[in-house]
Specification:
By secondary structure, this protein is an alpha/beta fold. The protein contains 11 helices and 17 strands. The chain is globular. The structure holds zinc ion (ZN). The site of zinc ion (ZN) has 6 residues, from loops.
């Protein structure tokens, strides 16, 4: 197919139209997609948390559209971010865990934009997102002309698992901004890793941790799973009190937030902040001990693992800050970004969030290894091997009182809504790229915690 190239001048018109107009000086120039790993929405000030975890994000929220009811499609890094970057459901991409990798046949947001002359760059700091040369063109790097997956650090308790800390992540993003030509519109994706375990924030982020003298100690689990016990890789200094790990998790958020703020300052200093769309979200949440599941994710589809922060700061600050309560999904970012660049998404699961509010009666899907969940405005449905579970979001936000037996009609309505959403296919189902592992390598991955319920 002959790919039509469009110029920055042509791009500016739809960008401006989407944002309600602006001055020539504030001509929109691109999109900065910021994602953070393992970040619960409810631990951020902008969603009501009072512990001072996110002053910079809170300030950004005051200039943005804040989505109060935003959801990931899956509680694992690879499936969730592959879905975000393609606008397709993890199950349609064939992605059930972090061992599978986005197929080369997938058409990503970056590929579509690059084909139309947009400069594309990514800085990712999670081991799961690294480029995999042994898998050919498979992976989330598809379409990014610049893909920086330098991971100079080792996780403290898993030396084979590499990562990059927030300060180095921001440095890498700023370095790319300084090296770009400046003439073309751009997409920059930056993925921060820090709130992911093990929770080892810089000392100055930790402060004093208040603990109760009689707090019981958790057992240390035999593996990385965290059900009824601390995941092995999370244990720091032999500590076994949950409250200490909760404080450490918040300190990781504080560190990430400081460095995110430094990137925003860098955009402002370079005259870019008012000329780009800032989109911010997390790939998934983290369990803080709900349901006896400690400091991990990837085990189930309850709220704490799939509800995420999401905000959009339009170019030029043209849209007045506001808060939206309708359910929105990572899948909405694909059409939103494409339309901002003047491109049509085609058949899509998502809604262009800058053009119209999604319908309030929307049912959003989530999936994990053959189980599914559906989120509506009033109820959530989880369907696993033991059958359906139904929760009232208003009276039971913690999802502790299963109403499925009492309200089979609501179970059916949510299943119907889930079916209606997922039936609209943007493309044929894909088979994931999968590393060819011999049995020994597979066992080694499982031991590291990357086989299935891996918390990454
Ligand atoms: Zn993740």
């Amino acid at each position: 197919m002959l790919l039509q190239r469009i110029t920055p001048a042509l791009l500016a018109a739809p960008l401006l139209a989407a944002c309600g107009g602006s001055t020539a000086e504030a001509r929109p120039l691109g999109v900065v997609l910021l994602t953070c790993d393992t970040l619960r929405a409810d631990r951020l000030g902008l969603y009501g948390w009072q512990a001072g975890t996110s002053p910079r994000l809170d300030a950004l929220a005051r200039e943005s559209i804040v989505y109060e009811d935003a959801w990931s499609t899956a509680p694992l890094t690879g499936p969730a971010l592959s879905a975000l970057l393609t606008g397709r459901l993890p199950e349609d991409l064939g992605l059930g865990d972090n061992r599978t990798v986005l197929a080369a046949e997938a058409e990503t947001l970056a590929e579509r934009l690059a084909a139309h002359g947009v400069e594309t760059a990514a800085v990712v700091s999670n081991w799961v997102l690294r480029r995999r040369p042994e898998l050919g063109d498979a992976g989330v790097q598809q379409g990014f002309a610049h893909f920086d997956d330098a991971l100079p650090e080792s996780e403290p308790s898993r030396p084979d698992v590499k990562e990059r800390l927030a300060d180095a992540t921001t440095d890498a993003a700023l370095a790319w901004l300084d090296g770009r030509s400046g003439a073309r519109p751009f997409l920059l994706w930056v993925h921060y890793q820090d709130p992911h375990g093990p929770y080892t924030p810089p000392r100055e982020m930790l402060g004093d941790i208040a603990t109760a003298a009689d707090e019981p100690e958790l057992p240390v689990g035999p593996d990385e799973r965290g059900q009824g016990a601390l995941p092995r890789y999370q244990v720091v200094d032999g500590e076994r009190r949950a409250s200490v790990y909760r404080a450490r998790y918040e300190a990781e958020i504080r560190f990430f937030d400081r460095e995110l703020g430094r990137l925003l300052d860098g955009l402002r200093a370079r005259g870019l902040l008012e000329r780009v769309l800032i989109a911010f979200t997390a790939d998934h949440g983290e369990s803080m001990g709900e349901r006896g599941y400690y400091f991990s994710h990837g085990r189930h589809l309850h709220r704490e693992l799939v509800q995420v922060p999401l905000l959009l700061r339009p170019p030029g600050g043209a849209a007045p800050p506001r808060r939206e309560r309708v359910p929105v999904s990572h899948l909405d970012l694909y059409p939103t970004v494409l339309r901002l660049f003047g491109l049509e998404p085609g058949t899509t699961h998502g809604v262009d969030l800058l053009a119209a509010a999604p319908p309030a009666d929307r049912i959003l899907p989530h999936s994990l290894r053959g189980t599914l969940a559906a989120t509506g405005s009033h109820h959530r449905l989880l369907v696993g091997p033991e059958g359906p579970e139904l929760y009232d979001r208003q009276t039971d936000p913690g999802e502790e009182h299963d109403l499925a037996a009492l309200h089979p009609e609501l179970v059916q309505a949510l299943l119907d809504g889930h079916q209606a959403f997922t039936a609209r296919k943007p493309g044929a189902p894909l088979r994931p790229a999968e590393p060819v592992l011999d049995e020994e390598a597979r066992r080694a991955m499982d031991a590291l915690g990357y086989g299935g319920e891996d918390g990454h």
